[in-house]
Amino acid sequence: MEQEPVPKRVRSYVWEHFDLISPRKVKCLICAQELTYSSNTSSMLRHLRAKHPETTPNTAATDASAAAAGGAGVGAQQGRQAELDEALVNMIVLDAQPFKVVEDKGFRAFVQKLDPTYVLPSRQTLKSMVDKKYEEAKKKSINELEKAEAVSVTADMWTSITMEAYLGVTCHFINENMELASVLLGVGHFTQSHTAENLRDAMELQLQRWGLRHKVHCLITDNASNMILCAKLMAVRNLPCFAHSLNLVVKKALEQTPVLTDIRTRGRRIVTFFKSSVKAKEKLAEVQNHLQTPPHKLLQEVDTRWNSTYLMLKRLHEQREAVSAALASIPTDIPPLVSLDYDAISECLEVLAPFYLATTELSAERIVSGSKVIPIIRMVQHKLASKAAGLKNETAGLLCQNLQQILATRCNVETIRVLALSTLLDPRFKTLAFGSQSYAQEAVAKLTAECATTIRGESAEPSTSQSAAMSEPNPEAGAVDNLWELLDSRVGATQQIPNPTANATVEVQRYLSEPYLSRGEDPLAYWKTRATTYPLLFSLAKKYLHMPATSVPCERVFSKAGEVASRRRSRLKPRTLETILFLNKNL
Length: 587
What we know:
About 60% of the residues lie in helices and about 10% in strands. It is α/β, with parallel strands linked by helices.
C-alpha cells in the first residue's frame, strides 16, 4: 500500500488548498506560492488567513455574523492577529527569547489556551517579522539623530560564549524636547585583531553609516591603550570611563594594603566553600534562621570589578555571626575570619563606601551624568579627608591614605575642558563644584570664549533692506550730513558689529548669578525654559550636557548580549544577534 504524501497526523483543512511538493516545501493551490513546511501547518494557515481569508472556516463564520450585524469580522480578526504578532516580536527581543520558542510544545499549548484563534508564526516567519521591526526602528532612530546637534559615543569590546568578538557603539544626545536620548548604533562582529587602526576603521564605518561623523563631540571608552589611540587617530576628543578610572584607583589602593589583601583571600575561600558545598549552604541557612539574620547568600569577589570586593566584604561583615557559627559546626580546614579581621573590614567599608556610591551614580543612565564627574570626585576626596582623622584601625588608615594619593594623581578632572564646561553649564553645580577656584575661573573664561566664538560664527553682514535703510539719503538733511559723515560711519560700524566678548561675558555672568538648582532637579528642564533668556548658553548646554560619565551603556548592552547568545542560542548568527540587541535597546 502506497504511503500518503501528507503525514497521517496532519488533518487540518489547509491541505485542501496546499500540495506537498517535497518533504520541506508546500505549494498554495490558489496563488501557487511556495512555503517552507516544517511538520506543522502554521505557515500555511497564516498564508490562507492573510492572502485568502475567504477559505478559512473561522473567518467565514465570523464574516457571516459580522455581515448580519453590519460589522467587519475579517478586518477585526486580521487586526487582532497583527497585534499579537507585534506582542510576540516584542517578547522575543525584550526577553532575549530564541526564535524556536514558537516550536516549543509548552509555549504553543499556552498560546492556544490564551487565544485559540491566534496562529503562531513559524520560526522563519518570526525572524522575518523581527527583521522588519529592526528596519522600522532603525528608520525612526535615524530621524531622531538627524535632529541632534551634537552626540557623544561610547564604545567597548565583548567576546561571546562562542569566542566571537564584537564592537559595541552607543550614541547619546539631547533630543528636540530637551531630553536625554540614546541609540545603540550597532554591535558589529569584529573579526580582525584589536589594533587601534582596526578599531578606528570600524568606528568610522559605523558613524558614517548613521551620518554622525561630523556631529561627534567626544568618545567615551575604558582606559585601554588601543581605545585611547583609536580616538586619537579619529581626531575625536576621548574621555575615559570614570567608573573604570575609579575601579583602577581602588584596585591599586587595595593592592598596596597587604593586611586587607590577606583578609580578602581568606574571605574568598569562605565564600567559595559555602557556594560549592550543599551541606555548608544548608547549615548556613539553618544558622541564619536560628540567629534571625537576613537570609542573604554570600557574594564572591571578581578580580575585574572592585565593586565586587566591596560587596563581598559587606556581606561577610553582615553575616559574620552566622558564618562563624556555621564554620564551627562543619568539619573543614577553612580558617574563619576573627574579630580583628572584622574590625578592619568594618572601617575599610566606611572608607570604600564613597567610591561605591560614586561609581553607582556615575553609571546611571537617562540622567545627566557627565557634569557630575567633577563634583563627585571632589565629594569623594572630601569624604576621605574627613574620615582619615577618625579611623582607629591601622589597615583602614593605610587604605584611606593610599586612596587619597592615587585619586589625586589619576583623577585631576578639573583640568579636563569638556568636564569643566559641562559642570559650569549644570545649574546645580556651576562654580561651587570645583575644588580649586582658580580652575573654576579658568572654566568661566573658556565658557565665555566659546560663547564669543558662537557669536562670531552667527554674525553676518546686514541684510540688503537693513543696509539700504541705513544708507538711504535724506534729501532734507542736505549738505549737513556731509559734515557728520565720519562720525556717522563710526557709529554705524559699532551698531552693525557686536562686541562678542562683551556680550558673551554679560550672558555668562547673568547665568552664574542666578540661584542654584537643588541637586534633585533636572538641569535640562531648566535649560528648556531658558532658551531665549540665554541663547548662547542654551546652545552650549545641548553640546555639553549629553555626555555620559562612563562607557557603562555599552557594558549593559553586552550584559544583555550574554543573555541573547546563551548556550540555548549559541549558534545565533552575528547579524541576528545585532538585530535583537538593537531592538532590545532602541524599542
